[in-house]
């Protein structure tokens, strides 16, 4: 499988992030327009009614700032997931919402937990660790980009700031690591050089023959071609003269 077939843009790569962003903004605008509050549909830990928040909470946000802070990471990370891990992208999205939500429901404080940040932590954690585990150069590069842009998010899996659901962040972070371990992805076949092959023999390598055992270059005198001297052979044929017989 080539890189072109494995990693390519499609309608899904663009459509899904746009739909997710439109949904969370639409829900927030409905709250403002109708003057209602959907926070009660968030995750309320260790209560039966709070279980519904596992599905609904990613689409509910407390303020425009909260919504804005989640919009760009959600769009960027979802696009990256669908582009580089299209085979398992929907599994990561769907089961990531469920498992991270359930972990939040189990360990969270007695308060409504809302927002898409749990899913964002699933995506960031999964993309980072999966890239490192695969050791494939493109995915490792993606992991490093995620760390560079969103590395500071790591601190928010700890209770360092009031008013944020660090339990949701932690649940998403752990879910991403778990998915990176259990989900397999097919990777493009990487070209191997001769020296990387199992049957490689150093003694038969034409390049290494120019170096001695200490790695010093061996200068070889050029072979001069000796031109053979051309000779002319004369062949004499004797014919008897019949008149002299």
Largest sheet: none
Shape verdict: elongated
Proportion of residues in β-strands: under 5%
Structural class based on helices, strands and sheet pairing:
mainly alpha
End-to-end distance: 93 Å
**In sequence order, what are the helices and strands, one letter per element?**
HHHHHHHH
**Rg measurement, Å:** 35 Å
Count the beta strands.
0
Notes on the protein architecture:
With 245 residues, this protein is mainly α. Helix content is 49%, strand content 0%. The chain has 8 helices and no strands. The protein starts with a helix and ends in a 63-residue tail after the last helix.
Kindly list the characteristics that best describe this protein.
245 residues, mainly alpha, 8 helices, 49% helix
Q: What secondary-structure arrangement, pairings included, does this model have?
A:
Blueprint: H1 3-6, H2 11-34, H3 53-56, H4 64-84, H5 89-107, H6 117-134, H7 137-150, H8 166-182
Helix pairs in contact: 2-4, 4-6, 4-7, 5-6, 5-8, 6-7, 6-8
Q: What's a quick, concise take on this entry?
A:
Helix content is 49%, strand content 0%.
């Amino acid at each position: 499988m080539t890189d072109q077939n494995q990693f390519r843009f499609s309608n899904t790569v663009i459509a899904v992030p746009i739909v997710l962003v439109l949904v969370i903004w639409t829900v927030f605008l409905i709250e403002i327009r109708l003057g209602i509050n959907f926070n009660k549909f968030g995750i309320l830990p260790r209560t039966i009614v709070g279980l519904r928040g596992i599905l609904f909470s990613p689409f509910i946000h407390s303020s425009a700032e909260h919504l804005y802070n989640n919009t760009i990471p959600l769009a960027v990370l979802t696009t990256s997931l669908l582009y580089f891990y299209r085979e398992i992208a929907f599994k990561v999205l769907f089961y990531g919402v469920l498992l991270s939500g359930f972990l939040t429901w189990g360990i969270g404080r007695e308060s409504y937990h809302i927002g898409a940040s749990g899913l964002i932590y699933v995506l960031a954690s999964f993309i980072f660790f999966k890239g490192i585990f695969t050791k494939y150069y493109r995915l490792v590069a993606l992991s490093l980009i995620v760390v560079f842009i969103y590395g500071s998010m790591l601190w928010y899996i700890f209770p360092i700031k009031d008013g944020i659901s660090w339990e949701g962040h932690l649940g998403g972070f752990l879910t991403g690591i778990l998915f990176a371990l259990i989900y397999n992805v097919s990777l493009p076949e990487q070209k191997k050089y001769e020296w990387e092959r199992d049957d490689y023999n150093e003694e038969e390598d034409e390049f290494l023959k120019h170096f001695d055992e200490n790695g010093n270059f061996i200068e070889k005198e050029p072979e001069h071609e000796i031109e053979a001297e051309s000779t002319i052979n004369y062949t004499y044929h004797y014919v008897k003269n019949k008149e002299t017989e």
